């Protein structure tokens, strides 16, 4: 699990072939790692951080990376950050407000 997927960690290595690569695995964890051991929830860039991390959970899955990819995909389509806030609490409130309007 990468744990810090954000636009700055996604690169194209060949402009013609459009080979997409994910870089910067400094915060990553092996998914086979001890699943019973708690992990830090202070990972990922705020705008792309999954709700379970914002809620302070220390047991989570690779779903946090899928959340970040979804936020980035939205940003690619709209050229705007989906959940732009100044802090974790505001971020969580904004996510719940958006989900509640769907």
Structure description:
The chain has 102 residues and is mainly alpha-helical. Helices cover 32% and strands 6% of the residues. It contains three helices and two strands, in the order ββααα. The protein has helices at 51-54, 63-78, 88-100, and strands at 10-12, 20-22. It has a two-stranded antiparallel sheet with strand order 1-2. Strand 1 (10-12) and strand 2 form a beta hairpin. The chain is flat. The model has no long low-confidence stretch (mean pLDDT 84).
Give structural attributes:
single chain; 102 residues; mainly alpha; two-stranded antiparallel ribbon; 3 helices; 2 strands; 32% helix; flat
Poorly predicted ranges:
none
Biggest β-sheet description: 2 strands, antiparallel
The run of helices and strands is: EEHHH
Mean pLDDT: 84
Query: Helical percent range?
Result: 25-40%
Strand order of the largest sheet: 1-2
Distance between the termini: 29 Å
Question: What is Rg?
Answer: 15 Å
- What is the β-strand count? 2
Strand content: 5-15%
- What would you call the structural class? mainly alpha
Outline the secondary-structure elements:
Blueprint: E1 10-12, E2 20-22, H1 51-54, H2 63-78, H3 88-100
Antiparallel strand pairs: 1-2
Task: Give a nutshell description of this structure.
By secondary structure, the protein is mostly helical. It has helices at 51-54, 63-78, 88-100, and strands spanning 10-12, 20-22.
